[in-house]
């Protein structure tokens, strides 16, 4: 038996989330059985747990798009019993039972071995949010956005993606401008390395097709008018990495930033990113992430607290990264 957060849909379509004891035999098919030690809550997890968006494709479902743990059983030649592993995405917690549990059975091709210098807890403090932030940083780098090109904007600065992105960029020598609507966290944002903070209201309303050229690049987890305004104010030849839709999934922009200034808008997907790309991202996280910053932005909760914390996240009452110790 193992404990798991289980989402069930009632006849009236209402979704309930309860911690239950389940049999290992109930786990779906897969060639690797993992003893989970830590999971985490991302924005997508909160949408799934609260049924605020149709994230979950079938019920009952164990949510949680991330986990770290140790291999207990395997028929996959790439893993052996005792290997420490990480999983991010691949439809886990949406189509397949996920990480908010003490055990998971998954396809070995979805797993990445834990970097030597990171603990399982640190890996989940990073989680999909931090791994996505690293993918965004890599996207900027590969498009030639170097620290000498100018200021980099990071939106959603108190969230998981934003917090890790600021920390990574500042350590790599970039000048970071952070966008946030939460004045009470200005000291926190500055402590991660942001040199400037602007209020998110400066970007969140309908703007002009082209604005003043300000940023050499940007990492945006907000979407909608915010993303449109970022593109309109990005310098000639600048690059915007878009990875989220906290404000909305619409994009009320024009082609002007792209054809008059040569701005590049890059979509960054973490769910089905290649294993090779994942390994590169985790290698860079191991090397480039300030672990003191990671500790500062992390809080730990139990499975029993997940439901309430998920609601708090959607009400903008959380910050940084939330690790779930599934054995508490």
How would you portray this structure in words?
The structure is a single chain. By secondary structure, the protein is an alpha/beta fold. It folds into two domains: 2-114 and 297-325, Medium-chain alcohol dehydrogenases, catalytic domain (Quinone Oxidoreductase, Chain A, domain 1, Alpha-Beta Complex); 128-267, NAD(P)-binding Rossmann-like Domain (Rossmann fold, 3-Layer(aba) Sandwich), CATH 3.40.50.720. It has nine helices and 15 strands. Strands 3, 4, 5, 6, 7, 14 and 15 form a seven-stranded mixed β-sheet that branches. Helix 1 packs across helix 9 and helix 2 (120-142) crosses helix 7. The model has no long low-confidence stretch (mean pLDDT 95).
Based on the coordinates given, report the CATH architecture of the largest domain. Answer: Alpha-Beta Complex
Distance between the termini: 16 Å
User: How many β strands by DSSP?
Assistant: 15
Count of helical segments?
9
Which percent bin holds the helix content? 25-40%
**How would you sum up the major sheet?**
7 strands, mixed
Q: What sequence of helices (H) and strands (E) makes up the elements?
A: EEEHEEEEHEHEHEEHEHEHHEHE
Shape designation: globular
Mean pLDDT across all amino acids = 95
Stretches where pLDDT is under 50 for at least 5 consecutive residues are none
Q: How many domains, in number, for the residues?
A: 2
Determine the strand fraction and express it as a percent band. Answer: 25-35%
Assign the CATH superfamily of the largest domain: Medium-chain alcohol dehydrogenases, catalytic domain
**CATH top level class name of the largest domain:** Alpha Beta
Alpha-carbon Rg, integer: 20 Å
């Amino acid at each position: 038996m193992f404990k798991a957060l289980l989402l069930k849909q009632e006849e009236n379509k209402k979704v309930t989330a309860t911690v239950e004891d389940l049999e290992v035999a109930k786990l779906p098919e897969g060639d690797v059985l993992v003893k989970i030690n830590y999971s985490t809550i991302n924005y997508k997890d909160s949408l799934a747990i609260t049924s605020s968006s149709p994230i979950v494709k079938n019920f009952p479902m164990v949510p949680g798009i991330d986990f770290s743990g140790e291999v207990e059983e395997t028929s996959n030649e790439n893993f052996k019993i005792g290997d420490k592993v990480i999983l991010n995405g691949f439809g886990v917690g949406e189509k397949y039972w996920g990480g908010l549990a003490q055990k998971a059975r998954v396809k070995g091709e979805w797993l990445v071995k834990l970097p030597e210098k990171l603990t399982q807890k640190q890996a989940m403090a990073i989680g999909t949010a931090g791994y996505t932030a690293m993918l965004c940083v890599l996207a900027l780098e590969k498009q030639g956005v170097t620290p000498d090109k100018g200021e980099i904007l990071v939106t959603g600065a108190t969230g998981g993606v934003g917090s890790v992105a600021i920390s990574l960029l500042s350590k790599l020598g970039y000048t970071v401008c952070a966008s946030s609507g939460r004045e009470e966290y200005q000291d926190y944002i500055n402590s991660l390395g942001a040199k400037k903070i602007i209020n998110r209201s400066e970007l969140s309303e309908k703007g002009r097709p082209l604005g003043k050229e300000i940023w050499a690049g940007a990492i945006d987890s907000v979407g909608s008018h915010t993303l449109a305004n970022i593109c309109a104010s990005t310098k000639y030849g600048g690059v915007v990495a878009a990875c989220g839709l906290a404000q909305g999934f619409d994009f009320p922009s024009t082609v002007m930033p792209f054809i008059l200034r040569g701005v590049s808008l890059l979509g960054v997907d973490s769910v089905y990113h290649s294993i090779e790309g994942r390994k590169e991202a985790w290698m860079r996280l191991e090397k480039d992430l300030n672990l003191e910053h990671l500790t500062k932005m992390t809080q730990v909760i139990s499975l029993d607290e997940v439901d309430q914390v998920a609601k708090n996240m959607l009400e903008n009452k959380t910050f940084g990264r939330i690790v779930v110790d599934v054995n508490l």
